[in-house]
Design goal:
alpha/beta; four-stranded mixed beta sheet; 293 residues; 6% strand
């Protein structure tokens, strides 16, 4: 099984979006616009007990699987927020709502109802289910145990709980991916995400876009970090598809996810090691950078 995962990940390793295509005119006339004076980014009020419980207890499964203490830590830095803010601006996504460790069910229901950029058939079926789960099982508390950082296409909202720029940009990649479709296309694409094996395609698109963007922006350290976190994360989606057909109890499920993440960690670190360092300044100016292949 792990050999198969290694092969899949090695194939994926060549799928970074190069040359990178910045989003142009992705938002349309029916895109749900932010209200006058509304901030694109809203940050949740810190609650020490809730955030501590989420970080030190409930997120431990995802921390172990991805071997990263920043995942679902409920303490997002200004650097991570700024990285996503720049990505959205660079790709013309001015009306994507971003909730930084925020629980806002009332406003999410409002956005679901007002989002004419997706037909009501999809919003009032799968959209209602997803928003209800957001309300009764808040990722603000349970991220990492189940749920976590995600983009909700039915409300055009990114929810962040991890202090990791690559994860944040990856969620922005989902928003960009959905924005390329028309109204009905967005709805069917959201339904496709729930179909067997289609998750691998959708996640692959966002992963490739993230790495391609960081490469284009010559953010070598962030590109390295992206390989190290996004490749094992992608491996867990491959494992998740297997568990869909061969369900096991939750304990064995987590052990299986750890096992399938190992090839992702291996390939991710190999790719990170091959990222070229930025050119050093010389007395005659800057050397021409050579981008990673």
């Amino acid at each position: 099984m792990q050999i198969v995962l290694l092969v899949i990940l090695l194939i994926l390793s060549g799928c970074a979006t190069v040359p990178y295509n910045y989003g142009k005119g992705l938002e349309k006339s029916d895109t749900l616009a932010l209200r006058p004076g509304e901030n694109q980014f809203d940050r949740g009020r810190p609650v020490a007990f809730v955030d501590g419980l989420g970080h030190y207890v409930l997120s431990l499964p995802s921390n172990l699987i991805l071997w990263n203490w920043q995942v679902d830590n409920h303490d997002i830095s200004g650097e991570t927020e700024a990285a996503l803010q720049k990505y959205l601006a660079d790709n013309g996504l001015a009306n994507v709502k971003v909730r930084v460790n925020q629980y806002a069910p009332k406003d999410e229901w409002r956005r679901l109802i007002k989002n004419k950029g997706m037909p009501g058939f999809f919003r009032y079926t799968a959209g209602v289910v997803l928003t209800t789960l957001y309300m009764i099982l808040p990722d603000r508390v349970f991220a990492g145990l189940f749920g976590g950082d995600h983009y909700n296409p039915f409300t055009n909202t990114i929810n962040l709980y991890s202090d990791n720029p690559a994860i944040a940009i990856h969620e922005g990649g989902h928003a960009k991916d959905f924005a390329r479709f028309g109204r009905w296309g967005k709805g069917w694409y959201a339904f496709l995400y729930m179909a067997p094996f289609s998750t691998l395609y959708v996640e692959g698109v966002a992963t490739g876009d993230t790495i391609g963007y960081l490469r284009q922006e010559q953010k070598q350290q962030k590109e390295k970090d992206a390989y190290k976190i996004l490749y094992p994360a992608y491996a867990t989606y491959i494992g998740g598809e297997g568990l869909r057909w061969f369900p096991v109890d939750i304990g064995l499920s987590y052990l299986a996810q750890i096992a399938v993440a190992v090839p992702g960690h291996i390939v991710g670190r190999i790719k990170a090691a091959n990222v070229d360092e930025p050119p050093e300044k010389t007395g005659e100016g800057l050397a021409v950078p050579v981008l990673a292949k």
